[in-house]
Structure prediction request, 158 residues.
Amino acid sequence: MRRLSYQLPLVLLLLVLTAPLLAGIETYTFETPEQEQAYKNLTEELRCLVCQNQNIADSNAELAQDLRKKAYQQVKQGKSEDEVAEWMVDRYGDFVLYRPPVKATTLFLWVGPLLFLLIAFVVLWRIGRARRNQPPEADSVDEQSLEQARHMLENKES
Prediction:
């Protein structure tokens, strides 16, 4: 009886902690393997707008679940990957794509990281150059202080 009193709370805790995992599994059925592959490609290429560093296939955010559902519905209706992606872009903008097209509005997304690295390199190069061109620092110990130190050492030795 005593052993059961320890096991029962552990079993209940285990059930409570694993229940949300079972609730989050989405299963979609497709008519053809091509539809399933199109859905998989779409969910891997569309960005979660909440998480921003995950695609909607990997995200557990509520918006990602909605986007997966919408992608599934459109694929089931026979729409192509491009049509579904275009619908998402029309609704959420180019940011929803992991690889946005290169155009005037997304140019900074493509050039920004390179520009940042270039600026960082120039700043570091100039700092290094400025340090090399500085004259060596003069000794901060003047003659009077040096003489006092010698005098103290001589007195200590005697």
The chain has two domains: 2-100, 102-131. The CA atoms of residues 10 and 16 lie 10 Å apart.
